[in-house]
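FORM 7B: Structural annotation worksheet

SECTION A. Query
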Amino acid sequence: MEDPANRIAGHYERHALSWDADRRTAGWSDKPFVERFLGLLPAGESVLDLGCGGGSPVALHMVAQGFRVTGVDSSPTLISLCRTRMPDQEWIVGDMRSLALGRRFGGILAWDSFFHLGHDDQRAMFGLFALHAAPAAVLMFNAGFGHGEAIGSYRGDPLYHASLDASEYQALLAESGFELIAHSINDLAKGGRIFWLARFAKAPPKAAPHVDKAGAASPRAR
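SECTION B. Predicted structure
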């Protein structure tokens, strides 16, 4: 049986238009988190948006605030929406797990997308975060309460999520050169997200770490 994490790309492509419409009409309860992330960036900074979805509301807001966005998503349909909405930005159909753009960014955002990766792929992502991080870059992602996996549902279709323990995320951040700024446990008054916010504190690595490129999944969710 196929690993449920590897079904994520197909899931979001199947439901791309419905998901985009739902996201745009459901309200933006997680906006305070995005605002906090952006508040740590210099004006006009470049942002790598991993799992950018259709670009609304997150990327649209970043662009409106003057940031330059490079968005990556596994769904061609969602990327096509981004290109229509924000043609002056850069949009890439791709798998975040095998990303190697050869460039570094002042901000890296993996919001409502990172948690669709399996445990080993999440661990491997920290090397890729560092590879694409400019000096003092800000990283934000969200995850779960503790180590585990869960299968949710969207429009009757199973939807995989996973998380590592908080202690392991802390260790992975430190090992890849990031200093923790904030880690917030589920706060319903602030959108109900468990998020990690960190700053890159050392020179980026000169070579990419080994990344397993097998499988077609690329998380996303925004």
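SECTION C. Observations
Residues 152 and 158 are 6 Å apart (CA to CA). Residues 119-131 form the longest helix (13 residues).

SECTION D. Sign-off
Analyst initials: ____
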